Amino acid sequence: MPSIVQSRKPALALFAAFLTLFINGGARHAIGLTLKPMVEDMGWLRSDLGSAVAIFQVFTAFAMFLSGRAIDAFSPRVVLCAGIALCGVSIGAMSLVSQPWHALVLFGFFYAIGNGVSGVVPVAVMVSRAYPAAAGAASGVGISGMSVGQFFMIGLFAFELPSIGWREVFVWAGVAHLLFLPALMAIMPGGDKAVAKAGPAPTGATMGAAVRTRKFWILTAIYAVCGFDDFFVTTHVVAFALDSGLDPWVSGNLLAIMGVTGLIGVLAAGYWGDRSGPVPATIAAFAARTAVFALVYMDQSPVSVTIFALVFGLTFLMTAPLTVLYVRGMFGVAHLGAIAGLVTMVHHIFGGVGAWLGAAVFDRTGHYDAAFAVACFGSLAAMALTMMLTGDDKMAGRSGVDSSGGLSRPA
Fold first, then answer.
1. Of the candidates 255, 293, 263, 274, the residue with the CA atom closest to the CA atom of residue 370
2. Which of 22, 232, 363, 366 could be joined to 145 by an S-S link, Cβ 3.0–4.6 Å?
3. CATH label of the domain that carries residue 213
4. pTM of the entire structure?
5. What is the pLDDT of residues 270-303, one digit of tens each?
6. What pLDDT shows up at residue 5?
7. Which domain holds residue 284?
8. 301 phi-psi bin (left φ>0, alpha ψ -120 to 50, beta other)
9. What is the pLDDT of residues 69-90, one digit of tens each?
């Protein structure tokens, strides 16, 4: 694998990507950590917050799509730092909510826009331009900031939650964004397309041409299932663990420890994707999900719940660094941000469905069994769909990336 640290400017881009997703990925899981104490304190239903998360996913999805288009043309500094600033103000204001609609507006709309604008799509595109020959591994390192942030921030919040309460958790999350912002502004690459290397104009399909292909719809279906799984689990895993009899401290820290296993998964997926293409790592992720969803559907003992959380955490971010590999291999790089943003938009919209459905199932039945069954069969279907992409040789490892970040063969 080509060396990741090649020059100062790409290294700064990589560090900026890591730091952005450290704060972005760590703070967004605060809603899952505080779900049960919030609804108990306010006398709400879980579906009240589940609806806020669902709306969050929809607006984050559209923001990611728009940020993907923006990153194709403008400076990453403007796009990412604006998103972080909006996140800090809106997540901090969550400490003031008193009605469900407050959460819908603050978390579901304003925080969602900021989170999408400073999320995986612009970061992955920025990093893939900096390291065109090692896009998977470099994206994996940048995106691993989400796992590290999840571990440290949620671990800290879980430790302090019993003594400070859920409102202070949101205050701390907001302050963290604003404290990180000056450092990000100082190191974030600026200028047109920031770190894109000089050379021939990038080639590839337009977004309109991409959406008219069968493989685009297979890819979006795969990412739809992935999003459903991801945000069903991260929204409800702490409450589910508490319902299953785990100690509150252990339950809160499950979400943090999932960040550690997620770190392993995202780094492995990026490296594996560069060597063998994105398909094998995707199949492995959905195979693991199918197995643990089946396990927790049949047995919800504390041991099974812990195994479920840790194994699912391993797969949580595996597809994130693979998105640019899929899109680049199928459609080229001329509209990489826009097409990757569209795929990720679908991922997050279905993430909202997963978060809402989990809450609705619990409110109706008193447990999550039906939602686990849907997630299990969905993961099995996604694994089968991924196998349909195995014949695309442009996505194979070391797939002809030239020094300009384009493809040596037309996509």
1. 293
2. 22
3. 1.20.1250.20
4. 0.72
5. 889 988 899 999 999 999 999 999 999 999 999 9
6. 41
7. 9-193+202-391
8. beta
9. 776 666 777 888 889 999 999 9
